Structure formats: structure tokens, C-alpha cells
Amino acid sequence: MWRSTFARFALPALQRRTSAMACQALRACPRPGQAAGPLPSCLTSVQLRGQQTLGSASLPVASQSVRHVRALDEERLMEVEWEDGGHSLYPFTWLRDNCQCPLCTLQSAQARKLLMSDLDIHTGVDVVEVTNDNKVSIVWPDQHTSVFDAEWLKKRCFSPAARQAMQEELFLNERYYWDSKLRIPTADYQEVLHDDKAALAWLLALRRVGIVYLRGAPAEQGQVARLAERIGYLRLTFYGHTWQVQDKYMANNVAYTSGRLSHHTDYPALHFAPGVQFLHCINQAVEGGESEVVDGFHMAEQLQREDPEAFRTLTSLHVDFTDTGMDYCDFMLQSKKCIIDVDAEGRLARINYNNATRDSVLDLPLHQVQPFYRALKAFVNIMNRPENVVTYRMEPGDLVTFDNWRLLHGRRSYISRPDRLRHLEGAYLDWDEVMSRLRILRSCVHENV
């Protein structure tokens, strides 16, 4: 059953763009609204939108062969004709700027040595040719020679399709949106710590889906730090390298109470909020304390579709956030952010919303105050729809990892006893470190395939 489902939906995408490891580590994508069958892997299935599989952005590029190369002097471009019949164009200035010779590039660091002040941005070329070992050689007017590997050039083609493929390989920008039917991807904590394929599958799912559940961690402090070491290092904040989520007297954060927490992202009071959050259950409450998550990007997409004016308001008006107290050290934070951030292409980039730390200072003209509240209320109402909320209960040894720029998480109120106090340990990382480790793991796993 699983094989037929996998072959029908996963294999075409895998052949184009995903690694063999990922197809073994993750279940095949079901049709919308249809559950997938059991899979003997380290991650359970996820409810995905569309018929794509969860995996890495691309396989290593297949061997490329150059048929012909010529200089287009008037356009100041080099044209490469590939054996498969395709054509690529490269500006002379870019080629000279990216010469790979030891004088121009420090190979040990993959860093440019050629100074911008020494770059002739109007350079022509004297000779372009294909070498006997199928590389592209360029002789410049000053008789400097640059030699480019065919595969290196093909990956850096300036066509829209090639540029998009490269950006997807580097950043994995595609996301898989979900609702209450999500079955959270789940992995074994020890396997993630000790097996590169399991760790890669974990980080791929974290990037694409936004949340991964790990089971089997010891029910004691220190496990979020161990997991962070698998990636790089923890993000230090005013609450420390790690922090203990417990019911505390004179709490300096609403999370340190036993009351309900509405859906929120952490730390919008920082101008650069942590990208990834870990929460490890050491002890659960006697009653209540269930966790809730919603896909903030999916909610923003729904808002844009249902109420475009509200979406425009939340993506354009800057809101004040604040956080004041004493923990790792004393702090008094202020920031200004849009509730929904979009990038230059209009793609969803980040959700910034925490009702507890939204400041009473609202730096808006009078005529924009009511439209802001109307827009925010519409967004929160979408988040609170039962069909959009995933609820789960953590047990001792469970560890959840999620995208703090995308997901909003909450908690139901709980009751503890003196002999059974609810205790979670949390930690933050930044997406830069996580994506760095993902790329390294992907390279290592591909080398061993």
C-alpha cells in the first residue's frame, strides 16, 4: 500500500528535486484530505497541501557537458550551448568578478580575493573556448585567464528557472501548509543525535512543515542543549541560554503561570526574534496543559483571501512590542514590527504576534487605530477556528521543535500538585545556524549515497 502511494505521488518529484534519503525518512505525500499508510521510517507522515513530497531542494547536479561557447561582444555576454541543447548567458563583468583562480579566490575559504576597486566593470574578453577537459576558459584583455567548471556554471545560469532552482536549493523557501488534520512529523531523539540521515530528515521537515516532534529524550534538564549542539549553538536571550517553563511566584513572563496562553510567537519585542524554538517536557501537569499550534503562514494566506484589506493593514502598519523584567540580566525591550512580514516578492516571511507583549503604546494616527484592531481581530479569529488548530499533549521525554517565525503556539491552563509540577525546558536557535547545519548534512549524506 505504501509503495503504491509513494510511487504515484513521490517518485516524480523525487526524480526532479529530492534526495533518496528524504524519501526513505518521510512518508509519501497523501492527496489533500487523505491519510497516508504506515511507513517504516524515523518520521511519521504529514498532511501536505498538493502532491509534492517532503525532501531536500535538489539532488546533486547531473554531469554537464559544454558543446560550444562564444563571446557576444556587443552585448558583453558569453553564451554557452550545452550538450542537452540548452543555452546559458553570462555577463562578462560577472565572470571576471567570479574568477576561480588562486589570485582571485581563496579556495580554502571559498572567498573572493579580487577587490571591487580592481574590477573593471566594462571589461571585454580576448578569447573564450572549451578546454579538452570540458571546462570554459576565458582570456581577458590584460591576459589574465579564468577557467570555469561546466557544472559550476550551469548551476549559476541567469535564466529565471535556474535562479529559482538555486534559491530553492540554498534556502528551501517552499512551505507545506497545514491545518488541524496535520499529523506532526515525529522522529526518535537518539537517532537525530547520532545519525546524519535522521538529523537531515528532521531539519528538512522542520523547514518545510514548521514543526517536528522528537520522542525518547531523557526526562531531565539539559536535553535541549544537547540537541542544539547537533546543530551548532544556542541563542542567548534575556531569559538565558535555556529557560524553565514552570509556574513561578512573581512571574516575569505569562508563560511562567498556570493560565491559558493564547496563540503567539515568542519574542516579537526583539527586533530579530529567534527563528527556532525547542521545548522539552520534563514533567507534565496532573490536568490540562495541552499544547496548541497553528500554521501562521497558512492563517495569513486565509486572511489575504478572505479579507484583503485586513491583510494589507497587518503587512503595512508597524506595531509596538515591549518586554521588561529581570532574568539572565535585567532588560527593557522595545520594538516595532508588522504583525505579518512579507518579502520583496510578496511571499510570507514572518509572523510577529504576542498579545501579552503587545505594547499599550500604539504609534498610529487616530484614523488607523480602529482598522488595525479590526484586522488583528480577523486574523486571531482565523487562528482560533477549530479546523486550524493542532492540539497535542506532551509527556515526559517528548521534545517539540518548531519554526518561531511561522508557527504560533499556545497552551491550555493546567493544574499541578506539589509532587507533580509541570516543567518544560526551552531554548532558542536562529535559522542561520539551522540552515547551515542542514546544508552541511545534505552535502554529507549525498556524498555517501
The coarse overall form would be elongated
Number of helices: 13
As an assembly, this protein is single chain
Low-confidence stretches: 1-42, 44-61
CATH class of the largest domain: Alpha Beta
Beta fraction of the residues? 15-25%
| Average pLDDT score | 87
Q: What helical percentage do the residues reach?
A: 25-40%
Q: Mind telling me the C-alpha Rg?
A: 25 Å
In CATH, the homologous superfamily of the largest domain goes by the name Clavaminate synthase-like
Separation of termini?
26 Å
* Alpha-beta classification: alpha+beta
Please tell me the CATH architecture of the largest domain by its name. Answer: 4-Layer Sandwich
Number of strands: 24
CATH fold group of the largest domain: Double-stranded beta-helix
In the residues, how many domains can be counted?
A: 2
- Main beta sheet: 6 strands, mixed
Strand order of the largest sheet: 9-10-21-13-24-11
Function: Catalyzes the formation of L-carnitine from gamma-butyrobetaine.
Catalytic activity: 4-(trimethylamino)butanoate + 2-oxoglutarate + O2 = carnitine + succinate + CO2
Protein name: gamma-butyrobetaine dioxygenase
Family: Belongs to the gamma-BBH/TMLD family.
